[in-house]
Amino acid sequence: MAKKNQTLGEFIIENQDSFKYTSGELSRLINSIRLAAKVVNHEVNKAGLVDITGAAGDTNIQGEDQQKLDVYANEKFIQTLTKRNIVCGIASEEEDDFVAINSQDENNQNKYVVLIDPLDGSSNIDVNVSVGTIFSIYRRVTPLGTPVKLEDFLQKGSKQVAAGYVVYGTSTMLVYTTGYGVNGFTLNPAIGTFYLSHPNMTFPEDGNIYSVNEGNYLDFPLGIKKYIKYCQEEEDERPYTSRYIGSLVSDFHRNMIKGGVYMYPKGSRNPNGKLRLLYECNPMAFIAEQANGKSSDGYTRTMDVEPTELHQRVPFICGSKNMVNKVEEFMQKFGE
Ligand code: AHM
Ligand code: MG
């Protein structure tokens, strides 16, 4: 039972038995993500100081530094997950191919693979706007003690055993699910401890926020264009309000708390949308569904999409159930 103010460490131990598989490895895995998140949080918070304190090769803080934090976060998560001996493979937005971890060793009993976007929305760092980490966890499908294979990563979202995100915002929060609802933990930076601040998070069924990059409007499918106009009409509870941070984790987090829909549809510049199925959309879709929300590509449930490649992109419509249903209705009616 989620108790407010419980620490994340206590929560993980207390809820270990409710996980689908109770060997304790999944708990250790979440624990290592918690640790890496704290390290990355520390670095992200220092981002604005790099120019002043003169950290490594920082002649141009603009594009350059942002690149470095992406790479830093990637290294920290991979290092932390590798050291703990829990996972047999990691796929990351920052790596072209997946990373195998001692998986050819026949004594290696690590059964989990992790897919991660170590620092999503990182172009926001230069301007002191929230960024996030997104993670997704599966059991491998190939036998233990054999080399991990692409098929271990190309699993449908519905097979996820856990997923979550960290938002490095005005407060840093870790939000995750193991398939038994969604809980959010806020970091007390003074003592480096995450506390349960948002037990049993749920999307309101309905909302009045739509989040989409309207700069791409002309490029959108007709169904999305019509939906946006519907949001702007003066009728019933409308017009809705538009909020778009350009940082998926933050936009999602706000919509989950307040009620809203996030959309990254396809367009001629992004023929399959922009966001990545395996480490951006699926984990968010799992959290959304666990929080009474919904996620689809406009027609098909996100977690039912059959993955064909590691860095695959899909259109992404995610948020309050009734709002996603409405977008689907428009897509069905007006299509592309
Ligand atoms: P990234 O993985 O390169 O950071 O891109 C993902 C980000 C999301 O966080 C955000 O929702 C989206 O890209 C914003 O894209 P755009 O600037 O095209 O609106
Ligand atoms: Mg990303």
**Strand segment tally:** 13
Distance between the termini: 45 Å
As for the number of domains, it is: 2
The major beta sheet can be summarized as: 8 strands, mixed
Residue share in helix: 25-40%
Any idea what the CATH superfamily of the largest domain is called?
Fructose-1,6-Bisphosphatase, subunit A, domain 1
| Name given to the CATH architecture of the largest domain | 2-Layer Sandwich
Strand content: 15-25%
Describe this structure in words.
This protein has about 325 residues and is α+β, with helices and mostly antiparallel strands. Helices cover about 35% and strands about 20% of the residues. The chain has two domains: about 10-200, Fructose-1,6-Bisphosphatase, Chain A, domain 1, CATH 3.30.540; about 210-335, D-Maltodextrin-Binding Protein, domain 2. The longest helix is centred in the N-terminal third of the chain and has 23 residues, at about 60-85. About 45% of the residues are buried. 2,5-anhydro-1,6-di-O-phosphono-D-mannitol binds next to strand 3 and helix 7.
